[in-house]
Amino acid sequence: MHPRGFDAIIAAMKNMRNDWLRERIKSLGKTGQGLANALGVNKARVSEIIGGRRGVKAEEVPAIAAYLDLSEAEVIARLAGRTPAVGEAIAMPVPPSRPEGLSASLPADRPAAAAMPLDLPVFGAVSGDDEAGFALTGEVIDRVRRPPGLAAARNAFALYVVGAAMSPRYDEGDLIFLHPGKPPVPGCDVVVELQGADGAGRHSAMLGTYRGKTPTRLLVAQFHPEGLRELPLAEVRQVCRIMRTHELLGL
């Protein structure tokens, strides 16, 4: 049995994507839905774990290990951002003390939701003509809490993911937070909005991983269909960086 509060340690070890999970699932010929079934959760939760937006709980480690044909020690090490040597024993860290009543699945210094302003706009998005893209309507359809890392970001906004171009990292319906003023770096995820609006004022857009740019093209990778897309820079309206968990928390 893992020590009490171990799920909090795993969450605190890495506020970043667990891409190794997706790669392991793919190498075994298995699916994100299969892992979700093994954990007794929906596929969106698996996407959140891979994307670093949800920690792994102690009781979930055995199911992950069994589904991925790994030892529990190797799963723990990989969640901590390292690959153990064959036969290496993994020492279990001592969980930090927490104020009474605080959920063990969240960092102790996590800001209270009530302290976050309920003013961050969620813009509408609909399926587009391109199977790998969608269209931004420009309409505010909701307001959500503004994370500390976006407190001073005047143009920040959120979107509900449309389509499966980046599944299982982001599944349809996932909420993502974007910072248009934060420059993208290779390896970060972005939403690219294109020039030219349709008759309803909607701009085509796509979700993917930023790979860099040439003097004339923006390079973005996607999972479905898998590959690298080269977008003419003249057709790009803006590139909005998707914020990671530690960035949202202001760390």
Characterization of this structure:
- This protein folds into 2 domains: 74 residues, Orthogonal Bundle (434 Repressor (Amino-terminal Domain)); 130 residues, Umud Fragment, subunit A.
- Helix 3 crosses helix 4 and helix 5 crosses helix 6.
- Strand 7 and strand 8 form a beta hairpin.
- The chain has 251 residues and is α+β, with helices and mostly antiparallel strands.
- The two termini are 31 Å apart.
- Strands 1-2-6-5-9-4-3 form a 7-stranded mixed beta barrel.
- The N terminus is likely disordered.
Look at the structure and give the mean pLDDT: 78
Q: Kindly, what is the distance between the CA atoms of the first and last residues, rounded to a whole number of angstroms?
A: 31 Å
Global geometry: globular
| Low-pLDDT sequence parts | 3-15, 88-108
Give the beta-strand count: 9
What is the element layout, followed by pairings?
Elements: H1 6-13, H2 19-27, H3 32-39, H4 43-50, H5 61-67, H6 72-79, E1 120-127, E2 133-144, E3 157-160, E4 175-179, E5 189-197, E6 203-213, E7 217-223, E8 226-232, E9 236-242, H7 245-248
Parallel strand pairs: 1-3
Antiparallel strand pairs: 1-2, 2-6, 3-4, 4-9, 5-6, 5-9, 6-7, 7-8
Helix pairs in contact: 3-4, 5-6
Task: Describe what is shown at a glance.
The protein has helices spanning 6-13, 19-27, 32-39, 43-50, 61-67, 72-79, 245-248, and strands spanning 120-127, 133-144, 157-160, 175-179, 189-197, 203-213, 217-223, 226-232, 236-242.
